[in-house]
Amino acid sequence: MHPGNGQVTNSRGPRKVLPVAKQRGKADTKRTGLAPAGKTYRTRWAMKISDRDVLLAIDVQNDFCSGGALAVPSGEKVVPAINRIAQRFGNIVLTQDWHPRDHVSFAPNHAGKQPFQTIELDYGTQVLWPMHCVQGTSGAEFHRDLDIVRASLVVRKGFRRGIDSYSALFENDKKTPTGLLGYLRERELKTVFVAGLALDFCVRFSAEDARAAGFDVVVIEDACRGIDLDGSVASTHQSFRQRGISVVGLEAFL
Ligand SMILES: [Zn+2]
Fold first, then answer.
1. Ligand 1 centroid vs 168 CA: distance in angstroms?
2. How do residues 123-160 score in pLDDT, each as one tens digit?
3. What is the CATH number of the domain that holds 192?
4. How far is the CA of 130 from the centre of ligand 1 (A)?
5. What is the DSSP string of 1-44?
6. 131, part of any domain
7. Which residues are catalytic?
8. Are the beta carbons of 58 and 206 closer than 8 angstroms?
9. Angle at 78 between CA 244 and CA 230, to 5 degrees
10. Cα 11 to averaged position of ligand 1 atoms, centre (Å)
11. What whole-number distance in Å separates Cα of residue 156 and Cα of residue 239?
12. Please, which residues have CB less than 5 A from ligand 1, an ion?
C-alpha cells in the first residue's frame, strides 16, 4: 500500500474504478484505484464489478429488522439496496445468524443478566443479546423481500452453543473458521463487498477478517444499518480507516 499517492494498491495492483460521468459517455478523467483508506466515493465514482468480486450480504434476517427480536433501527431498509446492488454481481454470498436456544450469547440464559450487559468468556468479553435468530424460527429466516435466488452460498454462523460469531469468517474466538475463507480462496475471489446488518458488529468483523486475510474489502455503507452500542458506529469507521477498508455509497453502483 502506498498511502501517499492517493490509491490503495496491493500485490495485485490497483483496482479499476470508472468515473460515473465516463460511463454515461461524457468526457472525463480516467482514474484507477480504490479510495484512500477511509475515504468514500459518495458521488463521483462507479465501481466496475468483475467475476473476481463477491457481494457478502450479512444477516439480513427478520429478527434484525423492525419488529424482530433484536431489531437494528431501519434494518429492513438494507433490503432494496442489497437487491439492487446484487444485480451487478455474479458472486453473491449470504450469511445467516443461526443459534440454538441455549446459546451462550442470549441474556435469558444467564441468571440475573439483562440484554446488552456483558459477560467474560474464555474467548473474551461477550455482549448478551435478547434471544434472536433461533434455528428454525421465522425470526431466523431471511427478510421475505431479500432476493436470495442468485446467492451461491449461505454461511450459517453462531450455531455452536458456547461461542458467538459476529464475523462471517471466524467465530468470536478469532480462530474457529466458518469455512467462508476457504470458499473465497478456492473460488479465487479477490475483492469482498460487504453489506447488511449490523454495520458495527457482524459487518464490521466480517470486513476486518476479510481484510486481514488479504482481500480488498469495500463496505457499502448505504446498504448497512448499525446498532450503535456505546459509540460502536464511530469506532467501526475508525477501524475501517486504520485497516484500509474502503467505504462507498450506493452511488458507486448506479
Ligand atoms: Zn446472534
1. 12
2. 999 999 999 999 999 999 999 999 999 999 999 999 99
3. 3.40.50.850
4. 9
5. -BGGGTBB--TT-PPBEEEHHHHTT------BSBPSTT-EESSS
6. no
7. 59, 157, 202
8. yes
9. 60
10. 35
11. 25
12. 97, 158
Residue in this structure with the C-alpha cell 476486518, named with its chain if needed: 208
Question: In terms of DSSP H, where are the helices of the chain?
Answer: 20-23, 78-86, 180-186, 204-212, 232-243
Do 202 and 228 meet the contact criterion of CB atoms below 8 Å apart? no
Q: What are the φ/ψ torsions at residue 78 (nearest 5 degrees)? A: -75, -20
Average pLDDT score over the chain:
86
In a domain, 88, yes or no: yes
30 vs 37, higher pLDDT: 37
Confirm whether 54 is domain-assigned.
yes
Looking at the structure of the chain, the number of domains it has is 1
Ligand 1 centroid – CA 129 distance (Å): 8
Measured in Å, residue 234 CA sits from the centre of ligand 1 at: 21
